[in-house]
Amino acid sequence: MAHGDITHIDIPVSDLGAATAFYSQLFGWSISEPPGFEGYPMWRAPNELSGGGLAPRSEGFTQPRSYVEVDSIDDTIAAALAAGGSVAMQKQPITETSAWAVIVDPDGNHIGLFDGVVSMD
C-alpha cells in the first residue's frame, strides 16, 4: 500500500466471540487470530483487500477507527500537530517492522496511522 491508503479498520467490540460470529455470518468475513495476535481477531473481506481487527472496546475507543498507511509516523504526527491536530496515542510497535499511532484532527476525529510491514502468513 502507498502513503495515504486506508489500510485497516478496527471495530470496537465488547465480546470478541459474539462479534466474530456476527461479522462472519453477516458479511462473509474470514476472521482469525494469526500467530502473535492472539486475542485480536483479524478480519478480511471477501475481496481479499479490505480488512481490520475486532478490538476490545474501551473508554477512548468506542467507534470504528480507520488506519492510514504513512511513510513515517513521526513525520505525519509532526505535520498533524502543525496543522492543528493532536495525538491520542503515541507511536507504538506492532512487530519489529511495523508501528501504529493515533492522531486527532481539529474536529476531534481519531485517525490511526500505520507504517511498516506486517505479515499474516
From TrEMBL:
Superkingdom of the source species: Bacteria
InterPro entries to which the protein is assigned, alphabetical: Anthracycline_SecMetBiosynth, Glyas_Bleomycin-R_OHBP_Dase, Glyoxalase_6, VOC_core
Protein known as: VOC family protein
UniProt domain VOC: residue ranges: 5-116
PROSITE patterns reported for this sequence: VOC
Classification via CDD domains: SgaA_N_like
Pfam families for the chain: Glyoxalase_6 (PF18029)
